[in-house]
Amino acid sequence: MSLYRDEAIVLRTHKLGEADRIVTLLTRTHGKVRAVAKGVRRTTSRFGSRLEPFMHVDAQLSTGRSLDVVTQVETLGAYGRPVCEDYALYTAGTVMLETAERLVEAEREPSLQQYWLLVGAVRSLAGREHAPGLVLDSYLLRALAIAGWAPSFTDCARCGRPGPHHSFAVAQGGAVCLSCRPPGATAPAPETLSLLAALLAGDWPVAEASAERHRKEGNGLVSAYSQFHLERTLRSLPMVERI
After folding, report:
1. What does the pLDDT look like over 213-231, one tens digit per residue?
2. How far apart are the first and last CA of the chain?
């Protein structure tokens, strides 16, 4: 039996037996790891509350045949309670965790950029640094960009013609010129495309100055773009859209 330590953020948990849990972690150096946390559902557990979704931890694990075993946990960022106590924060954060788990599909393949992006986004949510919807859209755009699906909001995503352009086609990769515009492409407001470009670049002063109508329009575009490239529906996303 070999031991290793790694920083991680908890993506998901589910019950195992009477007192245990299986915990899905996105770790800094080992990628996605599924591990058993023994006895954490007992009231006497020393680290049960540290292994909840959104928690940022330093964990020691032992290597197992099919699942590793969590042996020690120290808290690095206690983000679980502040996120879970607010509906808007919780629903936005749940989409982030689900997206991260889908983008990092293979277990034990390091994905350092996705790890740091998720930790930063959850920290921002817990600290209420920006509006939850803006944090979520920024996270989705940047996570997809890391995965190789960076959208274009200025130049034509298909032919590269310099923009700005006034049409947006999800399947083409973003803004498109008149020559490349496919049937069904949308025509969002220029301010909406500017907002999305700011969220992708992390330009928060521009994003915070945006109007609510442009945020709502941008949210629809980001949702469609994300689910198209993930090739499946994000189960948690409809809860955010009802806010």
Report:
1. 999 999 999 999 999 999 8
2. 48
